[in-house]
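go over my protein:
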Amino acid sequence: MYSNKLAEALAAASETDKVELAHFLANNVDNGEHGHDSAFVRSIVAAFDRFAAPRKGEHF
C-alpha cells in the first residue's frame, strides 16, 4: 500500500495543476526573480514528477 499522500496527489494532478502550484511556490518561497523564470518553474514541476513516481515495489 502506498502511504505518501502528497506523492499520490502529485501523480494524479494535471500538468496545469502542477504548473500552477509551481508558480505559487516560485512566487512565494523565493523573493528574488525566480518566480518569473519559466526554467525555474519547469524545474519545480520536474521535481514534482520525480517525487510522485512510485518507488520500487510501491503501487498507487
Residues 15-29 form the longest helix (15 residues). The mean pLDDT is 79.
